[in-house]
Design brief:
Layout (H helix, E strand, L loop, with lengths): L6 H5 L1 H8 L4 H11 L3 E5 L2 E2 L4 H6 L15 E2 L3 H15 L4 E5 L1 H24 L2
Parallel strand pairs: 1-4
Antiparallel strand pairs: 2-3
Length: about 130
């Protein structure tokens, strides 16, 4: 006669979570490396006008620099998480080049692109 199992034993909660939550960042890095993906670009988690309520609802708080200087406000701990993943990739992958793009860098690139688009627009309107 088979022994009876409790409901919690039948649910196998830990096994379920492992199957359905998916791989963590370190496992993802190893998978990308095994697949021969050449690079991974990590962007700093940020809050902006469009997503700030959703970011706050998920429990993230400001990481400091904000206001007039940045359109995108870094989320606390985002730098540390990205640097941890960079270090992991450096130590544990062979082919995967990993890059990190901070909010400041993202905004600088965005502004540079906007200036270029405005300059090109001005050049197009000046042509006869």
């Amino acid at each position: 006669m088979a022994s009876e199992q409790s409901l919690s034993e039948l649910e196998e909660h830990d096994r379920f979570v492992g199957r359905h939550v998916g791989p963590d960042a370190s496992e993802q890095s190893r998978m990308l490396d095994a697949l021969g993906v050449p690079f991974l670009n990590i962007h700093e988690l940020f809050a902006c006008r469009e997503n700030s309520a959703r970011v706050a609802d998920k429990g993230y708080r400001s990481g400091g620099e904000s206001g007039e200087s940045l359109q995108w406000e870094p989320v606390a701990g985002a730098d540390e998480a990205a640097l941890s993943l960079l270090l992991f990739a450096l130590v544990n992958t062979t082919l995967l080049s990993t890059y990190y793009c901070s909010c400041r860098t993202q905004q600088d690139i965005s502004r540079r692109g906007m200036r270029r688009r405005l300059r090109l627009g001005d050049e197009l309107t000046k042509q006869p």
